[in-house]
Amino acid sequence: MIGLAKLAAAVALLALVRQGQDPAKLLQLEQKFREQTDPVHRAKALAKLASGEIRAAQEEIRAGQTDQALGRLDRFRDDAREVYQALQASGINAVKRPAGFQELQIALRESVRRLRDIIFGLSLERRGGFVTAQQDLDQINNQLLQDLFPPPPPPKPRRKRHARLPRSLAPRAPS
Questions:
Q1: Is 173 exposed, middle or buried (0-12, 13-18, 19+ CB in 10 A)?
Q2: Contact in structure between 115 and 73 (CB atoms under 8 Å)
Q3: For the CA atoms of 73, 25, 101, 89, what is the dihedral angle to 10 degrees?
Q4: Which of 22, 58, 66, 115 could form a disulfide with 134 if both were Cys (CB 3.0 to 4.6 A apart)?
Q5: Measuring CA to CA, which residue among 152, 155, 151, 113 is closest to residue 134?
Q6: Does this model's pTM top 0.70?
């Protein structure tokens, strides 16, 4: 029994320490994201920030602050859209130089999956804005996938070659 009590206390202490560090680290990551001007660096910074934003929104929902959580997710969605548009405007070919595109796509894919889990736990009347944010993030993720893995170009039409007759059967020109 004493061993179980020590384990429970250690887990509770670890959870408190972790929760105490998350807000400071989240602010540090957000500040780093805001300072970046290069689209690729902004995308990488947002990718690092993504899991913390989703986790913070989840904690706010658990605390009953759904409006604050929705505001956080809306800001995250707007930042993701802005970064994606900046990456597109930069003219970088995502297939040849996937840096930034790839990190953002992976982060958005994981965020969308976690957000779906969060939405599943909400009552139907509270899901509306969260579903919209999730759908918007999913759309950006799909656009990134299209940029990273475009469909192959259609095959070039083949010109028909005329069959040649063997020399022995070919008509001879009059001499």
A1: exposed
A2: yes
A3: 70
A4: 115
A5: 113
A6: yes
